Amino acid sequence: MSSQPPHAAVLIPGPIEFDDAVLQSMGHYSESHVGPAFVAAFGETLTMTRQLFQSTDPSAQPFIVSGSGTLGWDMIGANLIEKGDSALVLNTGYFSNGFADCLKVYGADVTFVNAPVGSRPQLPEIQAALKGKNYKIITVTHVDTSTGVLSELKNLSRMVQETSPETLIIVDGVCSVACEEIAFDEWGLDAVVTASQKAIGCPAGLSISYFSGKAIETVKSRKTPVASYFANLLNWMPIMQNYENKKPSYFATPSPQLVRALNTALKQALSTPLSERFAKHKEVSDKVKEAVSDLGLKQVAGNVEDQAHGMTAIYLPDSVKATELLPILSKAGVVFAGGIHKEIQPKYIRFGHMGVSVMDPNRPEIDNAIAALKAGLTQLGYLV
Ligand SMILES: *Cc1c(COP(=O)(O)O)cnc(C)c1O
């Protein structure tokens, strides 16, 4: 499977399993963060980030900054929100709520468009909300990792541009970038924030984000200063531009090892057309979802068109407790995650199928996980 020491396969919605080459890049010998070799590697990584977002717009700007996915929320709040600015949050669960809480810290006046657990807000109600009030930003959680609900971005962004062209379209892509299609320029998105440890398949520790020229202009034309030092995009922008132009530059020390690992992960992700990567994630996701339904189980995301392709949230039978099943799976060499949506938390488990576990044909872990799930349920007395 890999040259790593034997371990249970980590099939949670991030961190995910690592490819050997990515992990080996973490062991890179020490180098100066302003030395020519690292500057070249960081610059190349930023350029590959543009490709990951299928973007060629020179006014758009990638940022790779030490931190977890949550730092992306702070970057949006600190830079795009001034006290009292209105934000429309499309609520699909735990992570949409977290994003909203973060925006409130920076003074946002948040309005939610809600949906029942396991579904997503629909275009007509979102449009009605946009017509009722001027919103500076609209946020959408592309895949809400608490429910496995996938939100549609293409028609949504078109509708927002027609209904409220001033509104910036902000995407939490932490659990979608590199496993769900994102065409940043074509769809007219204004910011996507993500992290290294989910479908990108790099160890945790990097916040990766992408901002449109329009979003950058919005930061530059603020009336009040950005109330964060580390998350201020204007502090990072010249640094990112210099690195991409292969010029050394310093604001705060990047992690050379993590950037090296991201460089390797992105090279792998971009070694074949992205469309093939997305199609492979869909194919494996379809297989997992079919196995789940063959076991007589339901998914949290009810409608097929709302189901993510990098994870599956599975309702357990009434007779089976997650706290009993998860340790059995772990003994069988498979790590799944428990529930985190507060309304249904004990009733479901989450199976992440992203990155190398999906893309590497020599890795048996997805099939093993399906078999282990079946065996574990049987052991707990659930008969298919
Ligand atoms: C994981 C996740 C986050 C938070 O990322 P951290 O790296 O844990 O800070 C935010 N949004 C979504 C959709 C996520 O899946």
Automatic annotation (TrEMBL):
The protein's Enzyme Commission number: 2.6.1.44
GO molecular function ontology, one term from the record: L-serine-pyruvate transaminase activity
A GO term from the CC aspect: peroxisome
N6-(pyridoxal phosphate)lysine modifications at: K198
Residues at which substrate binds: R350
A Pfam family hit: Aminotran_5
All copies of domain Aminotransferase class V, residue ranges: 27-341
Taxonomic superkingdom: Eukaryota
InterPro entries, per the entry: Aminotrans_V_dom, Aminotrans_V_PyrdxlP_BS, PyrdxlP-dep_Trfase, PyrdxlP-dep_Trfase_major, PyrdxlP-dep_Trfase_small, SP_NH2Trfase/AEP_transaminase
Similarity comment text for this entry: Belongs to the class-V pyridoxal-phosphate-dependent aminotransferase family.
Name of the protein described by the UniProt record: alanine--glyoxylate transaminase
Organism: Zalerion maritima
Lineage of origin: Eukaryota, Fungi, Dikarya, Ascomycota, Pezizomycotina
